[in-house]
Specification:
six-stranded mixed sheet; globular; 12% strand; 20 helices; 13 strands; alpha+beta; three-stranded antiparallel sheet; Cytochrome p450
Length: 445
């Protein structure tokens, strides 16, 4: 006999309102308490009709992202709210349009293609590290944030981009993100954002960014020079009917590469630097590994594919502090899982942060233990989602890992990192951002 359908445990609206100021600063403790009290799946009432279902059940995440992914779509946050700032590219599109774009862009991120970009990635990293002041406490996040943005720009545009334009694009990308966070965290102020002109001001900035990018694209087309960078690959890519991407679509994809490609990486690199500062023995392990690899080969592809210890450290850092700490989905048809019923169009938020620290899934879950990944991350594929999972897994995951391995290897090769902070603090916005990442860098002899 089938079990009768259970109700999803519900946290009332009154509790949400009571904690609304704390939630605005950092919603994670509030969610954690609800998970501890209600179980791995609960519903949070956000209004008389609105509610969100929070999930830290890894088996349900795997079911939604992989096994039954056809019944699940991205939520309004990405398919509408984010679209107005970055357009309809890979991250924000759905259905046939998404499939068509994914198929077209995927080859640009194959390992063989990425090999051509490794030297320009390394050059951007080395140049940015010149901004480190040795033997003085510094906030490393702005440096790593610039580093990640410059890396995406150099991979897209080689050396063709003008520095003033790059700075402007970075400013606009970050302003749009801050505005979106305000809209999502304070939906009750939507009317004010509209009549005060706040949203229009940010849309105007987005239009400016698009014009800058169009100028760069037209310049490249006119030059007839092939740089072998991501822009050339996107310009040369052809759909099944033999047509190239239209200009507006190309700009959408570039804006998404900026938004998704720099923010998550700079966060992950900052948390990794902080964890290394607190665990100097892992700095020395990475340093020793790098010395051995350098003796064997100067090839950058060898470095990124053979730096096993560096990769373990990065994977453990992204387990503890996943930059994309939530994954949102909406079910098209009603669905059932573990006796719970999900009506059509249920708003689901999967807490990657909670799944990565779940005591039933991980031994000593709050401790930094890179050795748990000594056989790679594949053995944890059903509970470890730093880049998502299934067909919508982040297209740039190899790019990000290669970039981060070079960045961490370079940093540890040149400096010993010391902590100038007590605890690792976080600011959960669209991504999980670090806060007060104050470190001291001592040059290696």
């Amino acid at each position: 006999m089938l079990n009768p359908k259970q109700n999803i445990p519900t946290v009332p609206l009154s509790r949400f309102i009571k904690h609304s100021l704390d939630i605005l600063k950092n919603p994670l403790p509030f969610h954690h308490q609800n998970f501890e009290e209600q179980g791995d799946i609960f519903r949070l009432k956000l209004g008389l009709k609105n509610s969100v279902i929070f999930v830290r059940d890894a088996a349900f995440a795997e079911y939604v992202l992989q096994k039954n992914q056809r019944n699940y779509t991205k939520s309004k946050i990405q398919t509408e709210d984010l679209v107005k700032y970055v357009g309809k590219g890979l991250l924000t599109s759905e259905g046939d349009h998404w499939k068509k774009q994914r198929k077209l862009i995927q080859p640009a991120f194959h390992k063989k293609q990425l090999e051509n970009l490794l030297q320009s990635i390394k050059n951007a990293i080395v140049l940015e590290y010149e901004n480190i002041t040795p033997n003085a406490p510094i906030d490393i996040f702005p440096i790593l944030n610039d580093l990640a943005f410059q890396t995406v720009v150099k991979s897209l545009f080689s050396s063709a981009a003008n520095q003033d334009d790059i700075n402007r694009l970075q400013y606009i990308t970050e302003q749009a993100q801050k505005m979106l966070v305000r809209e999502l965290r304070q939906p009750y102020l939507g009317w004010w954002f509209n009549i005060s002109g706040e949203i229009e001001k940010h849309l105007e900035l987005t239009r400016e960014a698009r014009q800058i990018l169009k100028g760069m694209v037209n310049e490249r087309r006119a030059s007839n020079v092939n740089h072998g960078d991501l822009l050339d690959m996107l310009l040369d890519a052809r759909y099944d009917d033999g047509n190239a991407m239209e200009e507006e679509q190309l700009i959408d994809e570039i804006l998404i590469l900026f938004t998704a490609g720099h923010e998550t990486t700079s966060n992950a690199l900052t948390f990794t630097s902080q964890l290394l500062a607190l665990h100097p023995e892992w700095q020395e392990k990475i340093y020793a590994e790098r010395l051995v690899l350098k003796q064997e080969s100067e090839d950058l592809m060898d470095l990124v594919t053979k730096s096993k210890i560096c990769q373990q450290v990065l994977e453990e850092a992204m387990r503890l502090y996943p930059p994309a700490y939530f994954i949102d989905r909406l079910n098209i048809e009603p669905d059932d899982f573990k006796g719970l019923h999900f009506e059509a169009k249920s708003n689901l938020l999967f807490s990657v942060y909670e799944m990565h620290r779940h005591p039933k899934l991980w031994e000593r879950p709050t401790e930094f233990l890179p050795e748990r990944f000594n056989e790679g991350s594949r053995k944890f594929s059903s509970q470890y989602f730093p880049f998502g999972a299934g067909p919508r897994k982040c297209i740039g995951n190899n790019f990000a890992m290669f970039e981060m391995i070079i960045a961490v290897s370079e940093l540890v090769s040149n400096y010993k990192i010391h902590p100038e902070f007590k605890d690792i603090d976080i600011t959960p916005l669209i991504t999980l951002k670090p806060k007060n990442a104050i470190l001291k860098f001592e040059r290696r002899a």
